[in-house]
Amino acid sequence: MTMEVELFWSFRSPYSYLAMQRYVDIVAKYDLHINLRPVYPLAIREPDFFERNHPNWIGYVLKDMARVAQYHNIPLAFPNPDPIVQDMVTRKISKEQPYIYRLTRLGQVAARHGESLSFCHAVSFYIWGGTPDWHKGDYLDIAAKSAQLNLSEMEKEALDDAQALDKEIEDNQKALEASGHWGVPTLAVENEPFFGQDRIEMALWRMKQLGLEER
Q1: Residue 79, SS3?
Q2: Which residues does residue 188 pair with via DSSP β-bridges, in sequence order?
Q3: 178 CB-near residues (< 8 Å, 6+ apart)
Q4: How confident is the model at residue 42 (pLDDT cuts 50, 70, 90)?
Q5: How many CB atoms lie under 10 A from the CB of residue 136?
Q6: Rounded Cα gap, residues 29 and 23, in angstroms
Q7: DSSP E strands: which ranges in 127-209?
Q8: Where would I find the H helices in 30-161?
Q9: N or C: which end of the chain has fewer CB within 10 A?
């Protein structure tokens, strides 16, 4: 029987991106379905998070994500544009956010159709893999097609049903916290949280203990 787990994930999280390919590879090898549940990043949920955090925090994250990418041979470049509009000097989050609501709602639309892992995997590669102007041209359309979805139909659903989608995204956040964590990426295996791209091997170990088998 296919094992079902949940992955709580954000388009703005570099560690969510750095975890994605490894989770996709696990699904390809094992009889596993990962239900990716997108959440809004901390910049939306807690806009003052960056301003009140330790001054060394952002510098460390930038260095760490670069070495993780190098270690795993994953292409990585700072997004252009950043999914979150933020002054990187003051760390203040802008009130105007033209990208993240669209992206997260599209991710939730994909979740409604059972294709959130495939869609978010493709989109995250464009955002974090060094593609300039990922929000323009055919990039999101190609990502949708790779997940057997139609971007025009997704955009219409995201626009027409924005309020309901935001409620579902809020429910995703509540489910994340109910699993025992609050950050992303977190894989919940029978409600046991495995937070971070550095817990993937341990999550796989636990799933094997619970009966996960190769395809």
Answers
A1: coil
A2: 6, 193
A3: 191
A4: confident
A5: 10
A6: 10
A7: 186-189, 192-195
A8: 42-45, 49-52, 56-72, 100-112, 116-128, 139-146, 151-160
A9: N
Q: What are residue 36's DSSP bridge partners? A: 7
Distance CA 138, CA 45 (A): 30
Place of tokens 């703005």: 12
Given a contact cutoff of 8 angstroms between Cβ atoms, the answer to whether 37 and 188 are in contact is: no
> CA-to-CA distance for 144 and 122, rounded, in angstroms?
8
Taking only the tens place, the pLDDT of each residue in 161-177 is 999 999 999 999 999 99
End-to-end alpha carbon distance in the chain? 10
Residue type, 21: Q
pTM beyond 0.90, yes or no: yes
Residue with tokens 């991710």: 107
* Distance between CA atoms of residues 139 and 130, nearest Å: 12
